[in-house]
Amino acid sequence: MADEALFLLLHNEMVAGLYRAAEQGEGENGRCTTKLESMGFRVGQGLIERFTKDTARFKDELDIMKFICKDFWTTVFKKQIDNLRTNHQGIYVLQDNKFRLLTQMSAGKQYLEHAPKYLAFTCGLIRGGLSNLGIKSIVTAEVSSMPACKLFLEYSVI
Fold it and tell me: Which GO terms describe its cellular component (predicted)?
């Protein structure tokens, strides 16, 4: 439980610190999102290495996505993804109806514009993990109501 609180506090401080620096003229807001995504990418690479060292090879990208939604997401966010969908043409949609990094924020409409900056690290986390598993991807996030989010993964096998 303490590690979860520390992760939430660290994440919130990373986001706040980067955007505070941007407001003081030390960077641009677009760069903040890129920096958070890059940090998440590196963390995702390391976590996937650690989590898959004792597992058998995955048969296909669907098995990889199931691993991401069940095991990876459970280890990082203490719950499974609520919904996984695909169009079978290179796009997966992961839906979390109570995303841990957004539950601390108010559900008011005025906070919807701030939600994407709290998802950049997670997009990088998934992209980094998939990269280490041989899947090149573009991960984007969408929040239509707090604290639910959808992550869109456009992928190609390397």
Answer: cis-Golgi network; endoplasmic reticulum; trans-Golgi network; TRAPP complex
